[in-house]
Every structure is written in C-alpha cells, then in structure tokens.
Amino acid sequence: MPLSLPDLPSPVSLRRLLPDASFVGCGEVIVNDATDDSRMVTEDSVFAAICGTKIDGREFAADAVANGCSAVLTDRPLPNLQAPQCVVPNVRAAYSKICNAVSGKPTSRLKIAGVTGTNGKTTTAWMLRSILNDSDRPCGLLGTIEYSDGNIASPASLTTPGPRSVFQWFRRMVENGCRHAAIELSSHALSQDRIAGTPLAAAIITNVTQDHFDYHSDFATYLAAKSKILDYVVEGGIVVINLDDPGSAQLRDKAYAAGHQVVTFSISQSADVRAEILDERVNGSRFQLAVSGPLANAEAAADADSQVEISIVLPGRHNVLNSLGAAAAALHMGASLADVQRGLENLSCVPGRLEPIDCGQPFPVFVDYAHTDDALQRVVDSLKSLTPGRVLCVFGAGGDRDRSKRPLLGKAAAHADFAIVTSDNPRTEVPLGIIEEVVAGFPPGFSNFHVEPDRRRAIEFALAEAQPGDCVLIAGKGHESEQVIGTERLAFDDRLVTREILERRHPQQETKHSVTSPSRGERSRSQPHVRGECS
After folding, report:
1. Would you give per-residue pLDDT tens digits along the chain (535 residues)?
2. Domain CATH for 143
3. What is the dihedral sign for C-alpha 431, 432, 433, 437?
4. How many CB atoms lie within 10 A of CB 97?
C-alpha cells in the first residue's frame, strides 16, 4: 500500500526549517511552495534568488515580488525590496530543503541510492532499479534518460533535475507505492546542492575521469564536486567505491574520514564485491559474482556461499563493473544474491548504452552515449577484444562545451581500426572547427579516419564501409532524440537514423533475433551480435 504523506499545501516555517537564517522585514516566513523562477511564484511561495553562472536571480527578486510571492530567499539583504526576506548563507542548499519540506518530506519515506561518476551512472541506476523491482521493492528513478515515479515515466531534461522537480518526483514515487529510489547525481547537481537534505542509504561512485572542465575548470575541482555525494550518506548507509578506477579510489579515504562504511567492488583486485569474468561476447558477458566483507554478513546476502553466476546482455567489462556497483547497493538495501542475479539478467537494454541495432546486417552495430575520452576508449577497446574484424567508430564532440576534451576524444577514437569524425551537437560553433580540434588528438601517423560533418552521411559512410565480421560503434549521443545546430533543436536519433539506413540497405534481412546465453568455454569472438532493439 502507498505510504501516506501530508496533504498539500503543507505550510512550512522557514524559521524552524532554517535555524541559521536571519529575517528582514519580518520575524517569520510561512510558505506552501518554493520556486527559483520569478514567473512561477504564487502568493504563498518563496522565491529563491539563486546566483548562477550566467544569471543572478537577485536581479529578478523585484519581478517575483510584483508577481505576488510572499517572501524572497537570498544570501544577502536586498535593499529597496518591499517584501519579507529570508537571508541564508547558501541559497541553493536552503532552497532544496524547502522544496523537500513543501513536498511533504517524501525523502523520509524512501531508501535512496545516489549514483555519481563520469560514466556509467545511467546503466548502474537502471541495473539497481531492475534488481529492486524484481525483489518486490518498488523503485523510482531519476536520471539522464527518464524520470519515473514507479508508474509513469517522462523523458528527462537534465541528468539531475532541479530541486523543485526532484522532490515532487520523490513525492509521486511514495504516492505510487515506491519504497526505494535511484537517482543519478551529476557533478553540476552536487556542486549546486540540488538534493540538499536528501538522505542517501547508498552512494555509488562509478568512476571519476575528465568531464565538464568548462564548468569545474580542473580535475581537483571536479573531484571535489563528486565527493559532495558523501555529505548525504546517512548513518548506517554505505559508500560504494570502484577500486578499478583511480579517481573513485581517491574518494575512499575521504569516505573513511567522514565515518562512512565503505564497500568496494572490482574485477582486477580483491574487493567486497568482485567479479570473475567467465565469458565475453558482443551480446553480453557471463561472470561469477562473489561477495565478502560486510555485505556477506548481512542476512539478505546470506546465500550458501555468497556467490552467484550471472549473465548480462550488455557487453564490455565496464558493464560488469556497473553490475557490481548496482549489486552492492541492492544487497545493502535488502536484496539477496538471487534477487541480484534475476534483476541483472532481466534487464534487456539500457536505451542508448551500447544499444544494438539489428536489421539482419552481417555485422553488429551499437549506439552508445560515450562522450568522454575515458568512456569512448573503454567501449572501443571492449568491442575490439570481441570483434574478429575491424571496429569502425563514428563520433564527434559537442560545441560550446569543454574544448580541452576534444583532442582527448580523438586520441581515444584512434583505438578503433577506423574512425569517422562527424558533428555531435555543434551548437553555435562551426562544425569543421570542432572537428579540426578533435583530429589534432590523433596520434602521429594515424591515417585511418574519414571526416564527414553531416552526422547522417557519416553514419551512412560507416555502414557502407563495414564488412562481415566488423563492428560499427556510433558514439556520443546515445538515447538523445535531437541534434543542436546553431540555436535550433532538430529531430535526430542515432538509433532511428541507423535503423532507417540499415533497413534500406538490407530490405530482405529485417528479422530480429533474441539473445542466447553463451555457454562455458565457447570463444567470445565466434558469434555475431544477435540481440533485438531495446524495449
């Protein structure tokens, strides 16, 4: 049965909620709603005057008052403003706490797992949701692909939505009977305190490599933003660390210093949750998962020998690692090893994450979201180890974003046998200018590449170039359904475009196939990809 929450509106005292706040023009503020958009205020709402990187919300405080808000949340008194003011040191954090409170504090009714990392957040969150749902622990999800309340899912606009949206979704989860939630936490969201006041039963750190340096400026700042996830782990919660990633491992000491229980996972070294890979193919991996340490002593994980054999349809060692991170959190949240096995094996696809496109062509084709050099290199290397022929990689770099990663993407793509450099989301930059910076990252003497700024033609080129036994990777955009050129958002989905081209080229071979689990001892490079489209 769904858990009850206070009926809305639910009046909230800012003096009680924010004891360190001071008040200007009043002794108390009582609100039923909160917003950081001056156009959305109501007579019983507080307007959060957030100072962002491009817009200073304090400049819109007068508009919010004119539109009828009851008070303004600010980090300094605003002169000549004829409205009550609640003054706090950190407007973003205070705003998040208010949003939670006016939503009826749904976080108190949920066991929440936060997933952060440069890569792997989405896959790990989807794996965790699948395990929990399959163990009769209804789980909501907030992440890059979708927001789901356990009943209805909506396409996501941000990896981690703004505070008002986050806590409204949490409330909907509770009302729909969810007891658990998985939320992807981007470095932007952590830096901006979007989930302040949210208790995490588990924090999963998948990896920390370079990304978003246009916002964070350098790796130290980026790592510090990621480490803020530790602030939300409650007493009795766990921090799940990927020992195979140096960036994640750097946070282990910080987690210990903060007094948290740390659970490690690894393929290559001793860890609390470890995998021995038994078989790898382009249509999935089979591995032995073994649990030791604190999780093995938990009642939920007390299976006969604390290990289980699991087959997943997502290829690549990075997806085995994602499985381990999800398994660790699920075990802590009450699932058993049998639940973990069932949940991982029942996950048929994560949209745009090494998503196969099968129209009967004599070579596998994958669409993947990899848009950092680390992610791209991992995916390319994984596919190369599983492909008897060549790996052809279509990729690009986004415009109006971190330029320092462009040559790094070129260097990563050079791990493929043939690279097709194209446009990603060029935004307001000249596509060929972006491509030149990408190509500059190719190693000296690397000549196995082709430049085609038009993304559709680049995909057509790769599919025409591929031969039986090859593998085509179309990277960078994954599940995205638009391409941003200039200031326009144009309909463009790599998966749909690829399927359209393949069906035109192979009109007699459109039969879809199903996955068969590889048997022990068979060679991983012996069979082509055979899985159907993502459902």
Report:
1. 556 687 776 799 999 999 999 999 999 999 999 999 999 999 999 999 999 878 999 999 999 999 999 999 999 999 999 999 999 999 999 999 999 999 999 999 999 999 999 999 999 999 999 999 999 999 999 999 999 999 999 999 999 999 999 999 999 999 999 999 999 999 999 999 999 999 999 999 999 985 555 554 688 888 888 999 999 999 999 999 999 999 898 899 999 999 999 999 999 999 999 999 999 999 999 999 999 988 886 644 445 458 999 999 999 999 999 999 999 999 999 999 999 999 999 999 999 999 999 999 999 999 999 999 999 999 999 999 999 999 999 999 999 999 999 999 999 999 999 999 999 999 999 999 999 999 999 999 999 999 999 999 999 999 999 999 999 999 999 999 999 999 999 999 999 999 999 999 877 554 443 333 332 233 332 222 222 235 3
2. 3.40.1190.10
3. positive
4. 25
∠ at Cα 472 (467, 478), nearest 5°? 160
Residues 192, 276, single domain; the answer is: yes
Residues 110 and 96 in one domain: no
If asked whether residues 311 and 400 sit together in one domain, one would say no
For the whole model, what pTM was predicted? 0.92
Q: Could you list the residue range(s) of the whole structural domain that residue 34 is in?
A: 12-102
In a domain, 187, yes or no: yes
Triad 451, 457, 463: Cα angle to 5°: 95
- Provide the CATH number for the domain around residue 434: 3.90.190.20
Say how far apart CA 417 and CA 390 lie, in whole Å: 6
Is 534 part of any domain?
A: no
Number of domains in the chain: 3
Tokens standing for 57? Answer: 């919300």
